[in-house]
């Protein structure tokens, strides 16, 4: 692709700057149409990732509790078997000392059974409580997943509707930027970056820069209309163009955009 010819005269530079502003503002408006959707989608994705991690942790803890309950039930079976074995041994003991020793073992295993039963009740209570929490988190996860699906569908629809136009506008913006010398382009980008509405180049309307109510001195207005040099509004810091130039370039750029859009749709 041939390198874009740089604007040389002050008027050419002003027209190139205003053309760039018109296209960049149009891109801004397309992005405004998306509103907060991209951020909302991102926030929902982050929230879902957090909920998913929490669900995994809760389920892992529940599995651990179930394993402990299983271990305790196995312990009860083992203790019950031991009690039965000791009771059978008591029938064949030779003296009171052996009988008492076996009796202590039976008491110990009985206590073990009681302790295991207590731990099982506690674990089952924890399991029930955790199950309720899992259900709540899962419900929230499902709800947020549905929200995300809806938001993504809305965003995809908007992007699909504006993708072709935005691609054309981005290409035009790049081409126009090439026609502006680097120093002036950097100034434009700096001013645009510092402005809330992204306006770096504005026409004079009703003796004030567009969007401002502060009057511009008559001599300054004449200087802007002469298009002999780049003039910056001392109050807003924006580059000024006269209204006639602004109207001419707005009409020209609208035709250029529509022509490219029509060609893209053909």
Number of beta strands: 3
**Mean pLDDT figure:** 90
Strand portion = under 5%
Count of helical regions:
6
Q: What is the molecular shape?
A: rod-shaped
Largest sheet: 3 strands, mixed
Describe the structure.
- The chain is mainly alpha-helical.
- The protein folds into 2 domains: 10-34 and 181-265, no CATH class; 37-163, Helix Hairpins, CATH 1.10.287.1490.
- The chain has helices at 10-34, 37-90, 96-178, 182-194, 218-226, 243-265, and strands spanning 201-205, 208-209, 239-241.
- The protein has a 3-stranded mixed beta sheet with strand order 2-1-3.
- A hairpin with a 2-residue loop joins β1 and β2.
- α1 (10-34) runs antiparallel to α3, α1 crosses α6 (243-265) and α2 packs antiparallel against α3 (96-178).
- The protein is rod-shaped and about 125 Å long.
- The two termini are 23 Å apart.
- 14% of the residues are buried.
Topology:
Layout: H1 10-34, H2 37-90, H3 96-178, H4 182-194, E1 201-205, E2 208-209, H5 218-226, E3 239-241, H6 243-265
Parallel strand pairs: 1-3
Antiparallel strand pairs: 1-2
Helix pairs in contact: 1-3, 1-6, 2-3, 3-6
Structure in a nutshell:
The protein is mainly alpha-helical and 266 residues long.
Task: Give the key terms.
Helix Hairpins; three-stranded mixed β-sheet; rod-shaped; 6 helices; 2 domains; mainly alpha; 266 residues
């Amino acid at each position: 692709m041939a390198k874009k010819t740089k604007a040389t005269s002050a008027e050419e530079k002003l027209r190139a700057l205003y053309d760039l502003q018109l296209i960049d503002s149009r891109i801004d408006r397309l992005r405004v149409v998306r509103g907060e959707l991209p951020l909302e989608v991102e926030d929902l994705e982050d929230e879902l990732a957090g909920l998913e991690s929490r669900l995994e942790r809760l389920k892992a803890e529940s599995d651990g509790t179930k394993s402990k309950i299983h271990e305790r039930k196995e312990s009860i079976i083992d203790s019950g078997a031991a009690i039965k074995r000791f009771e059978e041994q008591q029938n064949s003991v030779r003296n009171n000392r052996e009988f008492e020793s076996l009796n202590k073992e039976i008491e110990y295993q009985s206590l073990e059974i009681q302790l295991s039963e207590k731990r099982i009740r506690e674990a089952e209570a924890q399991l029930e409580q955790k199950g309720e929490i899992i259900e709540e988190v899962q419900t929230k996860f499902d709800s947020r997943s549905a929200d995300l699906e809806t938001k993504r569908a809305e965003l995809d629809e908007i992007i699909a509707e504006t993708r072709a136009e935005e691609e054309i506008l981005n290409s035009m913006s790049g081409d126009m930027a090439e026609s502006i010398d680097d120093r002036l382009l950097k100034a434009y980008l700096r001013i645009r970056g510092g402005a809330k509405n992204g306006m770096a180049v504005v026409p004079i309307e009703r003796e004030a820069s567009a969007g401002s109510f502060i009057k511009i001195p008559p001599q300054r207005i004449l200087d802007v209309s002469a298009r002999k040099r780049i003039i910056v509004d001392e109050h807003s810091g924006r580059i000024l163009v006269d209204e006639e130039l602004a109207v001419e370039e707005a009409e020209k750029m609208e035709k250029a955009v529509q022509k490219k859009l029509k060609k893209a749709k053909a």
